Amino acid sequence: MTLSPLLLIAGAILIAAYFLYGKFVFKKFGINNQRKTPAHKFKDGVDYVPSRPIVVLGHHFASIAGAGPIVGPIIAVTFGWIPAVIWILVGGIFFGAVHDLGSMVASIRNEGKSIGTIIKNTIGQKGKQLFMIFSFSTLILVIAVFADIIAKTFINNPGVASASILFILLAVVFGFLNKRIAHKKSLFTIVSIIGIILMYYFVYLGTQIPFELDYQIWLYLLLAYAFIASVTPVSLLLQPRDYLNSFLLYGLIILAVVGVLYANPTIEMDTHVHLSSENLGYLFPVLFVTIACGAISGFHSLVASGTTSKQIDKEEDVKIVGFGGMLIESFLAIISVGAVIILSREDYTSSLSALGPVTLFSNGLGSMMASLGIPESLAISFVALTVSAFALTTLDTCTRLARFTLQEFFEGIEHPVGKSLSQNRFISTGIVVILSILLIRSGGFTTLWPIFGSANQLLAALALLAVAVWLIKTNVNATFVIIPMFFMFTVTLTSLGIFAWKNFEDQAYVLAIIAAVLFILSLVLIILAKKSLEQQSPITQPGN
């Protein structure tokens, strides 16, 4: 069997899902343009900025994608490529797209606030506090990890550092111009085309002017950039950079598809399903924790209800941004699987341990792009740069999301400190950056990283819980949300239970305690949700 049919069939399934299942989901949430979105209600030019759907999609897609839909699926192929593909398609359509859209719509109906505030409005203040503490801790972990990864990438690939700096400068210029031509569609199109051309040119230019600094300097520069990106108006830096960067990934996807169709490589990997792995554990629940982005990821709910919901111009824009954005990411995950199953099982196993998933992805996809006449070394560098660029989008988006979370946690507190943290974005962002630095300097993130997959999927289960309770209280049949919710709780609780026991046996008590705390946290929130539903306080229906 060759790779082309797999890619074409997966693409057709995802497109059909958008129009068929998507129509059902959109109706359930009662999406219409009669409501004024938070971007218009609370327009402040900093966080609440109504924007074109293509621009918001670019920001949202760039933020949720990162390296997740590449790394996770490639590692999960350890269990066999068939279960990986099935979970990506089923999970992306019936779990991830519903999760992302639900989080976004629920946020829009709650003044653009985060899932934490939605939990407060539907479950109670205690539920909000527990969720906010958990999500804030997760975001700080992500910031620390990605700052470290990007700093090391810049050291090993100075050309990537140069290109990334040029991208940021280009984004500022684009954001400045876009603000002045916001109502002129033709000029926006022209400026976009010029910006995209310059961005691709900067990919080449970066390799010609490599910028070299040591690790510590890069680390502090990256966190300083994250601080600036968090407090700067979203339309000036974050939004235009993500919008332009999204065309890197669109270009990657297009070149990958054309390269696969032209080269039509044979799938060399066997079709055996491996129920366990010596390094990873059992297929259930590890497969569903390893493939997060691409199927369902709790981090998406923070983006959807954090930055994205504040930029939605018309409510129907959530269809392409929330539901469509997730399905595009699922297709990228399918491409990631395709990049490695052209290898035999033996070659895949040895290459994964020796090179790592990102390099394996870059080499596999680069070789297929080379069939189009592109120099293979340039194709491989382009793929690697694209992955690095999206790791940077994750860093700055997470910093802004952590700031939102901190502000919402202290919202309504009359104490001067609480007021400062909730109202002053500079102080709250400064705390986020300082905590990230302390985490990196302590080296704690290397210890916590193995548990991140389970924590991320627990976040997805909790977001689905919040959306389900909200729908039930609006008298909407929430079965299409409840089924994914129960499955994700089963996956995460099983995973955390196994993780806690294994680390307790290995005398890694810190990891065992963290896993146990997360386990208890989820149970407490389930109990609070149950009590809230028993007291049943109706709220505004989604369709009204």
Notes on the protein architecture:
The protein is mainly alpha-helical and 544 residues long. The protein has a single domain, classed as Amino acid/polyamine transporter I (Up-down Bundle). The protein has helices at 3-19, 21-28, 38-41, 53-65, 68-76, 81-108, 115-122, 125-156, 158-180, 185-208, 215-231, 238-263, 283-290, 298-304, 317-340, 345-355, 357-369, 376-409, 416-423, 425-442, 444-473, 479-505, 509-535; strands at 276-277, 281-282. The protein has a two-stranded antiparallel sheet with strand order 1-2. The protein is globular and about 65 Å long. It starts with a helix and ends in a 9-residue tail after the last helix.
Q: How would you concisely characterize the structure shown here?
A:
Keywords: Cell membrane, Membrane, Transmembrane, Transmembrane helix. The chain is an all-alpha fold and 544 residues long. The protein has helices at residues 3-19, 21-28, 38-41, 53-65, 68-76, 81-108, 115-122, 125-156, 158-180, 185-208, 215-231, 238-263, 283-290, 298-304, 317-340, 345-355, 357-369, 376-409, 416-423, 425-442, 444-473, 479-505, 509-535, and strands spanning 276-277, 281-282.
